[in-house]
Structure formats: structure tokens, C-alpha cells
Amino acid sequence: MKKLSLISLGILASLHVAHAQTISSKKWADLFSYNNVIAMKEDNGKIVAAAENGIFYYTIASGEITKLSKANGLHEVKISAFDYNPQNKIALVGYQNGSLDVISPDGITYVVDIPIATGYNGSKRINHISITGDLAVISVGYGVSIFDLRKKEFKDSAFFLSGGVYEASNEATIFGNKVFSVTNTGMKSHEMNTTFPVFTTWTTEMAGSFRHIDSEDILSFSSATTGYLYNNGVSVPLSQTFINVRDVVVNSNNIVVTDLNRVYTFNNNGNFNNTVSFGEECNTATTVGSSVYGGTVLSGIKNESNNSFRPDGPYFNYAYKMSLYGENQLLVSTGGRENRFNTALNNPKNPGFYYFNGMEWIYPSYFIGNTTRFNVLDVVSDPASPDDVFFTNYTTVTGRGVYKMKYNASSKDFTFTKNYNLGTDNLFARRAVGLAFDDANNLFVSIAFSSDGPDVGQLTAIGAYDRATDDFLIKNTTSLGAAQKPLFYEGLLWIPIPRLSALVAYDAKKTVNTSDDTAYILNQANGFDPNSGGNISVALDKSGDAWIGGDLGLRVLQNAVSEVKTPANATVEPIIIEQNGLGEELFRDSQILQIEVDAGDHKWVSVDGGGVYYLSSDGQQTIKHFTKENSPLPTNSITDIKVDKKTGKVYFVSYDGIVTYQGDVADVTSGFGNVLVYPNPVVYSNFKGKVTIKGLAEVTNIRIADAAGNVVHSAVARGGYYEWDLNNQRGKRVASGIYFVLMTNEDGSDKATAKIAVVN
């Protein structure tokens, strides 16, 4: 294979060739947004479209829609460029980090030459891809590269370097034996010959700032406001003047120019044909027969009747926290805070929250076009009245506080009910953070920077929702400043403090009357790292231990409910694991974003920049470690984790989108559930991993015997499932044959059996 060669300019010694890897499996699924269509291509009545985090296929005649993402084949998220050749059925996906996926009938190949290149330090984002036959021209911040789709390798590259400054290729196309590239200084061209890499040999066909270009039988390109038909060295302006050209597409019989929310079509001679409006902004458009289809920013693919087509998903990919309730219902918040406290994130798209009703995703029309600044940190449904939804708006501008909305199932929309500003006109005070209900369905909100007047920003508070007065009663707790989302457990609200290394356990006495409430405080004197910037997450496990994630690691408070009520005697401790024969603190110096406990008491732990760890109940064993490099996770910073304990499904939430993983632990009790062994049979040529046995009791005694009754393996499984490595008691792989799994629960009151077929 030929590597992407930058050696001709003397700025790179070597690069990595294309390679393939598999990071997805049937256990994963995506909950990505497919609204923002970046590029489209038609193939025999089917439109292939690229969105931000995946590709989808829309068959016009049947309406069938299928999707492809990192959860089932792709290797990245944040798609920035795409093209597809209907003749050879090969597509090329370009990402913001410079990597590529080659999608062909024989599989998907991941290409990382550009991201790992060391000679060029500018933006490696793939700006544009244009396929002609078996070749693709790729536009990047340094210029253009030619990629061979069949061989899956780079050919020549041209670096637009002049006076020590690189000029980006905005877009490029192959027309005849030439590459034409549009840049901010002109449309440039060069034949694909031996001098192609030498920028000084390129010709400037037309000076100016140009954005888009495409070709088939003809070539067309555009500036921001003018389109051109290029013919034998002459550029002829198209008859229409545009506001802001988003894309130019050349099909076999027309030129399609996308201009904000209008699409113009011209024949191959540049004569104006028609204009179509899709009622919203479009990124691109194409024609199928005589019909025009728009690739919109917010509604997927639209036809001329304004019907939209895309896989179901949230309105945007931004996600921060999730509430899981009812029958597979989800509420997703989209906000955030810089450095975990204080400054609210400013998202120009003002996303608000998303709702999944168990069947489809719904986006409140209230947020569309709303000029209020929304930074929604949390959203929950009222257990006493599930159609009532509360969310927090954490801002320092008008519109902050807690909001109440009502869901209407018939209209599939939410209506605004009330905004509670929590009783102060000071825009920097009483910022609502997170919401929680107690076991009596009383609603509480954690409040950051509660005090007013000269001491603004000095107190953490709790707000209790009084249904009788339809208002919140506020009680300050201590001089700690910020707050995180509360967690209700055994009569207490557990609130990590992200500004200081502390934890609040708030006893509301099962009422909304705040006058008799008590706040118990743990701080550095109780064992939190004195150098930490604060605590971020907390989870309570089946043993009643509090797992507390902080800025610099993890601490555990055993028997948390009783211990926290005597703060002077309570001690939080790190988990010590053995590494190379030495004791090592688990997650030392790591920022713990979220901790979640599954039905088997295992711990899911999100580490900022480090992916997600799946730990044994005591934290001593890492069962799985998912990262964006080895799994469909869209990022290594997962902001929230939720486990559906009935099904074992795990939700991973991030600013780059949501993915799910079907875990092996569900609804674990003292007895057996539906015991399942997989894979079964185990054929060594097809599978070389461990065999999973799930549906077990919370504590299960396991004996595995061969057909003669000899016990080859025994173990005690905790947490509802077990993985057998197919080794016998001596550590050797067992022979081919049928093996019987004999299982009893901890007290012997329940039994189960299974068979495993092994083929070596």
C-alpha cells in the first residue's frame, strides 16, 4: 500500500496506512440525532445521506429507512464530509478529526493517515470529499489529497503552501484528468501528473473567494452569492443572485444550488429551471428524476411536499443528564457548566430538553425560536403526575430557575406552565441545578450560590416544592457555594459539592416544610482529598455504601446513612487495588464524572477523558473498560450513565450523543431468573472469548461437569452473571464436548442447570 506522502515537501517522515478494526457489536445501539443532513447522493431510487453522527439510507418508493453509525460499523462520530459512488457502491466518510471510513460491499475500512500525520499541525478536518470513478479528492486544511477507493490508500497530495502559510481547500472535484479546488483566494487546477504535489505548478483559473464546487458532465462552482458554470476555461455566472450559498451539486442533467432555505435548479447550459423552498435552512439538495430533495439542518431529508425522512432520534446530539422512568421513557437535558460549577455553557442552538415516550422522540416546540437563554442541567417527570415535567435552567440571565411544563399526548408536545425564579432578582444568585423526588413524591431542587445581597454566591441551598402554594421553599445549608444533582436514598438527599471537596446529606424529614430540616456535611476532615477541586457524583449501592466521585479520584463511605449523621466520626476512604504487587489507589488523580450501580451491585464509573469502567461490586476487579477507541462511545467523557435495572440496558450520555449497551445483569434477586448461556455452542474458530451465563441469583454457586460427571470448573458468581474462560481447574482449555452447568443460590433454596457445547 502507498502511504499518504508528504515527503515531497520535506515535512513528514512517515504515515500510517489504512487499516480495519471492529469496535461495534449487537449489544450496542445509538440514540443519535439524524436531523442535520450534511450531504446526500441518489442511487436508483434510494437516497444515501450523511448526518452528524451517522449515515442513513432512505428508499423513496417504500419509505424504508436504515442507519449506519459507530454502534454498528462506523469508527467515529462528527462527520464533516461524505460522498458515494452509485456505480461501484463505495462511500467515503470524512470526520472532523481527519480520519476516514471507506464503506464498500466487502466491509468498512478505517483510515487514520491524516490524523496521525506529524508534519502538518493545522486543522485536519475533512472539509469535503468528491468521488469520480475509483478516485476521491479530499479537501483538508493543507490542500488536497487523492485517495484510491479500490486499494484503500492515498495516492498524491498537494500542499497549498505559499510564503510559509497553508491555504485550505474548501472543496475540490476531479473533472477530466484535472483536479479543481476552490479556496478563499481562487479556483485552482492541476492535472493529475508528476508535478501535482508542487503547489507552484498549480493554475489559478479564477481569482476570488469560492466555497463550493462539483462536476459530472459539466463543472460548476460558487462564491457566497454567485454560482458559475465553467466551460473550456471560461466561467459564466448563473442567472440568479444568492444570499448565502450552502452547496452546489451537479447531477447528470442539472445543477442544484442550495441557498439557505431555497434550492435553485439549472440545466446543463446554466439556464434557470425552478426554485423550491423547504421552509427551513438546508445544507444541501439533490434531484431524483424531476423531484427535488433537501438535506435540512433540523428535519433530515425533505421532499417538495415538506415531508421529512430520517431515523428517529433526539432533536440534537447534545446531551448532559438523563432521567429514566416508566416504560422505557427518557428525559434528556442538554446543558452544562464550565469546570463543573459557576459559568453556564452557552449553546447557540438553545436545545432545552428531549423526551422519548417509549415509542418515539419528541421535541418541545416551546424551545424552537425561543429567545430565552436555556442551559437545562436537569429534567424530571413528576411520579404523582407523569405528564408534569420540571427542568432547571442554570443561567445568569433572565429566565433562570425551575420550569414546569405539561405534556399533551394527543399533540405530542409540551406546553409551558410556570417559571419559578426561586425568590431573588439577583441574576447571579440561586441558580437551580438538579432535581429529585423522595419516596413520598416530594420534589426538591439543589441550588448553587443561594444567598442574596453582599454575600451572593456563598451558600448551597435546597428548594422544596410546595404543591399547595405552587412554589418553592428555600433553605440554605452551608457556606459551600455550588451544588450537583441530588440523589435520594433512605430518607436523605445526597448532594456532591463541586466547588469544594465536600458532600451534603440533607434530611427533609419527609416533608416540604424546611424549618425542621437538617444538613449533614462531610468535608476534607472526613478524608476527601485536600487538593481536590470538589465532588461531582455520588451513588449508593446495595450494601448502603456511598461511592463518591471527585475531581481527583474516588472515595467510599461505608454504612453511609448511619455514618453521615455523625460527621465528626465519619471517614471516607479510597479503594486500594493491587498493581504489580503494590497497593494502588483506584482512579487516583482522575476526575470521576458519574457513578451508577446496576442490579448486580456492579459499578459503572465514568472518568473524564478515560471512558467508562465496569467494576466488580467491591471495585477490586475491572470487568470491562469502554473507550471511544475500542467501543461505540462517541467520546471518552461520558457525562451521565443510567441503568435500566429491569432489562440491564445501560445508557451512556455525552455532549456528542447517546449510545446504549445491553448489559448482562438485569433484575437480580436471591433466586434465579431466565438463565441464558451464550455463545452456545462455542466454536473456537468463530469465538475465542469467554462464555457468559446470565440470569443468575445474586450469589450463585457454580459447578461445571463433563459428560462423565467430572467437575472441571467451580466458582461463586456474584451480581447475576458469570463468565467462564473454558479452562479447567488446572488452567487448561477443556476438550470438545458437552458440559453441564449445575447452579444453586446462596442458601440452596433455588437451583438451575444449563448445557454448554464446546467445539475446539
From TrEMBL:
Record-linked Pfam families: PorZ_N_b_propeller
Keyword Signal listed: yes
Ranges of residues in domain PorZ N-terminal beta-propeller: 49-194
Keywords: Signal
Source species, domain of life: Bacteria
InterPro entries referenced in this protein's UniProt entry, alphabetically: PorZ_N (IPR048954), WD40/YVTN_repeat-like_dom_sf (IPR015943), WD40_repeat_dom_sf (IPR036322)
Residues making up the signal peptide according to the UniProt record: 1-20
Full protein name: PorZ N-terminal beta-propeller domain-containing protein
